[in-house]
Design goal:
CATH class: Mainly Alpha
Largest sheet: 2 strands, antiparallel
Strand content: 5-15%
CATH superfamily: dinb family like domain
Helix content: 40-55%
Distance between the termini: 27 Å
Structural class: mainly alpha
Shape: globular
Number of domains: 1
Radius of gyration: 17 Å
CATH topology: Four Helix Bundle (Hemerythrin (Met), subunit A)
Order of helices and strands: HHHEEHH
Length: 177
C-alpha cells in the first residue's frame, strides 16, 4: 500500500475539523443550559498571554489550508481575522473542510519532494521539502491550535471527553465478534 500526501493531509485535517465544529456545538449547548450567551465563548482563553478560542479556530483552519496550498503548489491563503461569533467559527470550519475536500488527490503528486520556503520573520525562513512541511510544521501547528480550542472549551466547563476529541476513531470501534 502506498500512502499519499493527500491521504495524510486531508485525512488528518478534515476529521479533526469536523470534531472541532462538534465541540463548538457542545460549547453553545453548555452555555445555553446555564443561561449564558454562547457568543461569549469566542473570547475565552486559557491564560492572558494566549489566543482566544476564536483565534485558535482561525489558526487551526489556517494551518490546514496553508499546508495543503503549499503542498499542491498553490499560493498560501491570506491569514484573515478571527471572528468571535460561533456562527462565523463554524462557517470558517465548514469552508475549510469544503476547500480541502475539493482539492483533487492528483494535485498532491510529488508534494512530498516539493521544495518549500516560507518566510517566518525578516531574519528567519522555514525551508524544507513537502513531507517535512507536513510532518514538522503543518500537522503539529494544526493540532496545537485544535487541542487548545478543546482545552479552552473544557476550561469553560463544556463536557468534552476523549471520545469527543477522537470522534473520527468511532467509526472503527465496534463490539467484539
Amino acid at each position: 500500500m502506498t500512502l499519499s500526501t493527500h491521504a495524510i493531509a486531508v485525512g488528518t485535517f478534515v476529521p479533526m475539523l469536523t470534531s472541532l465544529s462538534e465541540w463548538l456545538d457542545k460549547g453553545a449547548e453548555h452555555a445555553r443550559s446555564r443561561g449564558l450567551d454562547p457568543e461569549t465563548l469566542g473570547a475565552a482563553q486559557l491564560a492572558p498571554d494566549m489566543f482566544t478560542l476564536a483565534m485558535q479556530v482561525m489558526l487551526a483552519c489556517h494551518h490546514a489550508r496553508d499546508g495543503t496550498a503549499r503542498l499542491t503548489g498553490r499560493p498560501p491563503p491570506a491569514f484573515g481575522d478571527a471572528d468571535p461569533t460561533l456562527g462565523a467559527m463554524k462557517a470558517r470550519i465548514a469552508a475549510t473542510i469544503a476547500d480541502l475536500q475539493a482539492i483533487p488527490a492528483a494535485d498532491f503528486d510529488g508534494a512530498e519532494d516539493r521544495p518549500i520556503s516560507m518566510d517566518l520573520t525578516d531574519a528567519l525562513v522555514f525551508q524544507a521539502d513537502g513531507l517535512a512541511l507536513l510532518r514538522d510544521w503543518s500537522i503539529p501547528h494544526f493540532y496545537f491550535h485544535a487541542v487548545t480550542a478543546y482545552d479552552i472549551l473544557r476550561h469553560e466547563g463544556v463536557g468534552l471527553g476523549k471520545r469527543d476529541y477522537l470522534s473520527q476513531v468511532n467509526r472503527h470501534i465496534r463490539p467484539k465478534a
